[in-house]
Design a protein that fits this description.
The chain is mainly alpha-helical. The protein has a domain at 63-168: Orthogonal Bundle (Cytochrome Bc1 Complex, Chain D, domain 2). 37% of the residues lie in helices and 9% in strands. It is built from 13 helices and 7 strands. The protein has helices at residues 2-16, 63-66, 85-88, 98-102, 120-132, 143-154, 157-168, 216-220, 236-250, 256-259, 277-288, 298-304, 309-321, and strands spanning 176-180, 183-185, 187-190, 193-196, 202-204, 210-213, 228-232. The strands form 3 sheets. Strands 1-7-6 form a 3-stranded mixed sheet, covered by helices on one side. It has a two-stranded antiparallel sheet with strand order 2-5. A two-stranded antiparallel ribbon has the order 3-4. The longest helix has 15 residues, at 2-16. The protein is globular, with a radius of gyration of 19 Å. The termini are far apart.
């Protein structure tokens, strides 16, 4: 019953409108993109054998090939080095190819982490945190987080080592275009991210970040060459700079102390520059509320404790705007 009430409460936030949210309303629905009011999935689209194509690729793949997480779609095999089998094929029954969700070049999508360039030790520790229950989501049934828990428990230590070393060795390249805007396209939740409404239209951005594909059709085909645009509130980048670089007049502490002055990471501490702002807000929120409590998370408790929902938006807007 408690879960039912929680689901209804989260659904109410979505129904009221996503242009803003108050802390008492729970996780921001634009960052935790899950819609409990969505109807049951439609019947799978039949694969007629037609090959699909994306820009800047000579590869042709059928719908069945695109949807196979144990033989991930490789549209641009030249934009990353040869990957180990655990990344491209996974291991049945429970370990999907890591590159299916995180993409073979490691750039990721708003619903998950960009793994390219993260320290191998950091990736390994996060898998351990998922495995032992220390890392969860503020939305208990959020599919990407639940999927990671299951994969972490099914993966072997060698699986994790190979994947961590591979993704750590990749370069994180510009992938997200950050734009300050008072008015943004209307969106809906699709595939655990925000997608532009087919009917078009616009609405005020309010106090949120709207991160959506630059090309929805190619993103749906899991194209690792098609990035994202993140609309952020006017003035948020400048406000975020004060918080990130100076700690907001004592409210927090400068992020560069641990993440590097250029936000490109420091030792085992992950980089922040250019990363998905939706993902960053989710992690900060989960740390604030004890849902992410892994080995290194206590170091962040004092940092995030006094940050407001508006602060989280501003911080993520600024970090996403920095060149990785």
């Amino acid at each position: 019953m408690r879960r039912g009430f929680a689901t209804l409460a989260f659904a109410a936030v979505l129904a009221i409108g996503a242009v803003g949210y108050a802390a008492e309303n729970g996780p921001p629905p634009w960052a935790f993109a899950a819609n409990p009011l969505a109807p049951q999935p439609a019947a799978p689209v039949a694969d007629d054998g037609t090959q699909k194509h994306v820009a800047n690729s000579s590869v042709g793949l059928t719908l069945s090939q695109i949807k196979d997480p144990f033989n991930i779609p490789e549209w641009h095999p030249d934009n990353h080095p040869a990957a180990p089998d655990i990344v491209t094929h996974g291991r049945k029954p429970g370990v999907l190819g890591c590159g299916y969700c995180h993409l073979p070049n490691g750039l990721g999508r708003p619903e998950n982490a960009a793994l390219a360039g993260l320290p191998a030790a950091y990736i390994t520790q996060q898998i351990a945190d998922f495995r032992n229950g220390a890392r969860n989501s503020a939305i208990p049934d959020l599919v990407p987080a639940k999927l990671m828990v299951g994969i972490a428990k099914a993966a072997t230590d060698d699986d994790i080592k190979q994947a961590a070393e591979y993704f750590s060795g990749l370069s994180f390249t510009p992938w997200i275009r950050v734009v300050e805007a008072a008015t943004v396209p209307k969106t809906h939740v699709a595939g655990y991210m925000l997608a532009p409404d087919a009917a078009g239209g616009s609405e005020p951005i309010g106090q949120r970040i709207v991160e959506t594909p630059e090309n929805l059709a190619e993103t749906e085909l899991r194209d690792s060459g098609s990035g994202f645009i993140a609309y952020v509130p006017p003035g948020s980048i400048k406000r975020g700079e004060r918080l990130v670089m100076k700690g907001g007049a004592g409210k927090s502490m400068p992020c560069g102390t641990c993440h590097g002055i250029d936000l490109k990471g420091l030792g085992p501490v992950p980089p922040l520059a250019g990363r998905s702002p939706s993902y960053v807000v989710r992690q900060l929120y989960d740390m604030q509320h004890g849902n992410r409590a892994g080995l290194w998370s206590p170091l962040m408790v004092g940092v995030v404790r006094d940050l407001t929902p508006e602060d989280l938006v501003d911080i993520a807007a600024y970090t996403a705007s920095r060149r990785p």
